[in-house]
Specification:
Length: about 500
C-alpha cells in the first residue's frame, strides 16, 4: 500500500474544483499566462477542515503574500500558477496548523516542579509571584520551540503573563502566532485564594490589581497590538474569572470587547464544586444568572466549563458563546462531585469548541488529541477523531475570534499549515482524523508554515536554536526554583 494515500472512506470524500482568482492584470486562472505565487506545495493529500471537511488527493495549494490563493488537484494548480519556491509533500498530508486555545505560557518551565513542593509551604503561587520578564521570555521561547515541532502555529495566553512584551517578542523570533491580554485583570483575588490555595501566595496576589479601579485601568491595555493586521501578535479582552471579578468589572470588559469587536475570555467552571457553591448563593444556575444580566453574547469565550447541564447547551448556542476545552483539567474534575462534561455534545450542537493544554504538566503538546479522546470517553460522551482534529484547528481559532482568518485551508485565509511525513508509522490513510489529530506526534511533522513562511523543515525548527533555547529555559527554571526555596 502507498502510505501517502491518506484518504477518508469513500462516503466522506468530496472532490472539489475551486474557482481561480485573477491576477493584478485581470488574467484568469487557466489562461496561457500563469499567475505568480510565492509558494506552491504539491503532491499532497489536503485536509481542508472547512465547512465541507474536504479531502483533496494529489492536491496542491498556492500561496501569495502569506495567504492561500488556490488549492485543488495539483494539475489544475500547475496549469494556472507558477512559483520559484516549490515544496514536494511527497504524498504526505497537509492540514491547518493547530492552535492551543489556552495555555499559561509563563509557567511552561514549571511543568515538573510540583513534586518538589509536596510537604513544603511553597506553592505555584510563589513560582508565579517570582517570575521576571526574563523568565517569561525563556518559558515562552521553550514553548514556541515545542509547539512548532508538534505542528502548532499559534497559542493563546489568558492574561497570566506579567510582562506581555516579553512574550510578544517570541512571535517574530520564532515565527509563531500569539494572542495576549492584560495581566491578571480581577478585583476579587480572594475568591481564588479561598478555593484554590495551592495556586496562590502573598507575593503572587500582591501583583494583582488591589481594587476595581486598578483592574479597570489595566483593561484593554494590550489592544494596541491589533493595529497591524499582519502582526503575529494579537490581543483580546480577558478577565481572570472564576468569581475573581465583580459584575461591574465583567460588564466593563464585555462592553469593551463589543466596542472593539474582539473576544472576551475568562475562566469559568474549572471546579464544579465552586460553581455549585456560587449557584447556591445566587439561588439559580450560573449561566442563567449571566443571561439575566446580559453577560452572554457572541463575543464571549469561557474556558473549562467542567459543569454544563444538558439544557444549558442550547443557551450557549443561542448567544454564540464559545468554549475552550482543557482535557487534562477536565479529567482531573471528572472524579469530583458535580462534574458534567459535554464537550462533544456542545460541538455537535453548533457551539464552537477549541482544545487547549492549559498547563501541560503531564503530557507534551502533541498528545493533546489523545488526552481529549480519553477525557471525552471517560465522560461517557466520546468524541470522533475528525471532531478532535476540527477542535484543535478551526474550533480553537474560533475561540479567539480568528476563524475568519485561520483554522482551515481555504482561499483567502492565511497560509498556516502542517505537512506530515508520508512514511510515518501512523499514516495508513484509513482515518486521517485519528492519525493526524489524535495519535500523530511530533515525529510525523515534516514542515510547518506560518503565513506562508516555513518555520519547520524536516522536523527541525529553523527559526530557533534548540540548544540555546533549552539551556536558557533550564537556567531560568533552576534560578527561580532556588529563589523561592525549592531544591531538586
Amino acid at each position: 500500500m502507498n502510505p501517502s494515500a491518506l484518504v477518508e472512506p469513500a462516503t466522506k470524500i468530496r472532490m472539489i474544483t475551486m474557482p481561480f482568482a485573477t491576477n493584478a492584470s485581470g488574467v484568469p486562472a487557466g489562461s496561457n499566462e500563469p499567475q505568480r505565487s510565492d509558494l506552491i506545495v504539491h503532491n499532497a493529500t489536503i485536509l481542508t477542515v472547512d465547512a465541507d471537511d474536504r479531502v483533496i488527493r494529489t492536491g496542491a495549494l498556492a500561496v501569495r503574500n502569506g495567504r492561500i490563493v488556490a488549492l485543488d488537484r495539483q494539475e489544475k494548480i500547475f496549469a494556472s500558477y507558477a512559483s520559484d519556491q516549490l515544496f514536494d509533500a511527497a504524498g504526505g498530508a497537509v492540514h491547518p496548523g493547530f492552535i492551543d486555545a489556552h495555555v499559561h505560557v509563563s509557567q511552561y518551565t514549571a511543568r515538573s516542579v510540583l513534586p518538589l513542593m509536596e510537604g513544603t509551604s511553597v506553592t505555584m503561587g510563589h513560582w508565579k509571584g517570582g517570575l521576571t520578564p526574563e523568565d517569561e521570555y525563556a518559558s515562552a521561547r521553550l514553548a514556541a520551540l515545542d509547539y512548532l515541532q508538534c505542528g502548532y502555529t499559534g497559542f493563546v495566553d489568558p492574561g497570566t503573563v506579567f510582562e506581555p512584551d516579553a512574550v510578544a517578542a517570541v512571535a517574530d523570533e520564532a515565527g509563531i502566532r500569539i494572542w495576549l491580554t492584560d495581566p491578571y485583570v480581577a478585583d476579587g483575588g480572594e475568591a481564588l485564594a479561598a478555593d484554590l490555595p495551592e495556586l496562590v501566595s502573598e507575593n503572587f496576589l500582591a501583583r494583582w490589581p488591589r481594587n476595581t479601579d486598578e483592574a479597570l485601568k489595566r483593561l484593554g491595555g494590550q489592544l494596541f497590538r491589533n493595529r497591524n493586521p499582519d502582526s503575529l501578535v494579537k490581543a483580546f479582552v480577558g478577565l481572570y474569572g472564576e468569581a475573581t471579578d465583580s459584575p461591574e468589572l465583567y460588564q466593563a470588559a464585555l462592553s469593551l470587547a463589543r466596542d472593539r469587536d474582539v473576544r472576551f475570555q475568562e475562566h469559568l467552571g474549572y471546579l464544579p464544586a465552586f460553581q455549585l457553591k456560587r449557584e447556591k448563593a445566587l439561588g439559580q444556575p450560573l449561566l442563567r444568572w449571566f443571561e439575566e444580566r446580559g453577560f452572554l453574547d457572541s463575543h464571549v469565550t469561557f474556558t473549562h466549563m467542567n459543569l454544563v447541564r444538558e439544557d444549558e447547551i442550547s443557551l450557549l448556542g443561542k448567544f454564540g458563546v464559545r468554549v475552550v476545552w482543557c482535557p487534562w483539567g477536565q479529567l482531573q474534575m471528572l472524579g469530583k462531585d458535580g462534574a458534567q462534561a459535554r464537550m462533544a455534545d456542545m460541538h455537535r450542537a453548533g457551539v464552537k469548541v477549541g482544545i487547549a493544554s492549559d498547563i501541560p504538566r503531564v503530557a507534551d503538546f502533541d498528545v493533546l488529541g489523545s488526552l481529549a479522546a480519553s477525557a471525552a470517553a471517560t465522560s461517557g460522551r466520546p468524541a470522533k477523531p475528525r471532531e478532535i482534529l476540527r477542535m484543535r484547528t478551526l474550533g480553537a481559532a474560533a475561540t479567539i475570534g480568528a476563524d475568519g482568518e485561520l483554522g482551515s485551508l481555504e482561499v483567502g485565509k492565511r497560509a498556516d499549515f502542517v505537512v506530515r511525513c508520508p512514511s510515518a508509522s501512523v499514516n495508513f490513510g484509513f482515518d486521517p482524523g485519528l492519525e493526524l489529530g489524535v495519535i500523530g506526534g511530533r515525529h510525523t511533522v515534516k514542515a510547518v508554515y506560518v503565513g506562508g513562511r516555513q518555520v519547520v523543515d524536516g522536523g527541525k525548527v529553523v527559526t530557533l536554536d534548540d540548544d540555546s533555547v533549552i539551556a536558557a529555559a533550564h537556567r531560568s527554571a533552576r534560578a527561580l526554583a532556588s529563589r523561592i526555596g525549592l531544591r531538586a
